[in-house]
Amino acid sequence: xxxxxxxxPGPAGTSSRATRGLxxxxxxxxxxxxxxxxxxxxxxxAQKDAVRLMYVHVPTAILAFTACAITTVASAMWLRxxxxxxxxxxxxxxxxxxxxxxxxxxxxSIWGRPTWGxxxxxxxxxxxxxxxxxxxxxxxxxxxxxxxxxxxAPRGMRGAIVGLxxxxxxxxxxxxxxxxxxxxxxxTITRLDPTIEGTMLFTLMLGIVVxxxxxxxxxxHRFRVGWLEERAGATGLDQALVERRAEAGLAAxxxxx
Amino acid sequence: MFRDASLMAGKDLRVELRSHVxxxxxxxxxxLMLILFGVALDPDRGILTRASAGLFWVSVLFCSLxxxxxxxxxxxxxxxRDALRLSGxxxxxxxxxxxxxxxVQLGALELVLAAGVVVMYGTEITGLPLLVATCLAATAGLAAxxxxxxxxxxxxxxxxxxxxxxxxxxLAPVLIGATxxxxxxxxxxxxxxxxxxGLLAAFALLYTAxxxxxxxxxLEES
Lengths: 257, 222
Known about the structure:
heterodimer, A: mainly alpha, B: mainly alpha, 86% helix
């Protein structure tokens, strides 16, 4: 017999000293980035002020792909170790990655309007990033389905296999879309000037660092929420078991008297 | 492994032959799609002929969803999946057999669709070796990836809606590759199509290898 649970183990919230520090640092970084992106960096010669979107767009794109890599690694680790932490991490990274992919697509679309004259273009990167968005949505949809009677594979296994294939799929899609568009001679798109330097380069680097901090902060908190969710599920099951046992015990005692 | 695979493929194909689901439901659906494309796009302007490669492969893609769902529905009744697990067949063999059965059915569907495209869209067949090679490679990829994702969604209440969103983005490279290879073959520039055919073969090999390795754990654990 196990002792009945009195209080759920573990912390009641999702913040700790370290993440509060990280949060403050992210906020300060965002303020600094705003200053650099909107005020102190010069407008581009060709794109004028629209180039300022780059300081959001490029970091979110990098982090969206980082999130996919984290999900794939976490899924591989889950398959090796079968520990709950990797399962929760895979989902947390995919969810945060989905948000960053969304931001990347929206900022790209807004940026495309003044520079390319259209919100959408069949550019390889737009197409493959949109497919990445759908891949992440599908992965999260699959994870959210609990084990059902008759299902072939358990939830953890399903999620891990699709998670493991996430990064390879993103790479195959990216490669094939890239190749497809490069064969087509489409109108040349005004691209980002590859030789950015000085304040603009610094602002872009700052953006990558700051969004990296925001990403880490979100990922850690989402991980902790996911972890508590799993714990709550397990605790709920334990408690229900204890209650049923107590009921059975009472019934047996009542029967004897 | 290969003996188990041929047993499995033989069983699935016999089920299809006797139930007539592929011939009476999926094949008419494929032709129906060709008609609907014809109605939706203007048939008089030559759009259909120009787009026939893409329309052909989109139809194959949608038919493959049906074939994959069907391949796992036949296991769902009467505890077929448990029987499969207890049968002692090599899981890799089960995977290869299922994929082979889907491959054969899709191949047959492609013949029907090709005839439909030639008759209804007025597409002229040129570059036949490339067309055949592309069909083989792309269908192998569809069957392998489809079997892997099909078993993940099998038995779930939401399988009909879940499978397309999981599988279609993954199959996007197959659609791109097969369409480009077909366009090259039909446009008389077969040399441009062979690299795409190589990409399709690589995709098929990758998913066959992964499915062969992963299927055992997927089937056994629940």
